[in-house]
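Hey, quick one: can you model this chain's 3D structure?
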Amino acid sequence: MHLKNWSTIYPGDGCTPAIARVYDVLSTTAYFPKDDMALSLGGEKSFKASYSGSLAEVCEAGAATGSRRHLGRQASRFIGERSLVAAS
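Sure thing. Here's the predicted structure for all 88 residues.
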């Protein structure tokens, strides 16, 4: 895991961080109005060209393949490591 592949958002009160579901789409949109991604997805650099469905469908497809379980494990490890760093 590379830390650069995670993005945080501050939903609700704006003080409590949460891991963003999608990092390349969310975190670059504010800075780069074009939708070119750094890596190809389905042979396309454009998110719109690579997937014509909704973001909710993309998330559901990931959940069906076990991504949600994997991300949950990674998030738990990340939070645990953050606690260790804060304690040192």
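One thing worth noting: The chain has a mean pLDDT of 69.
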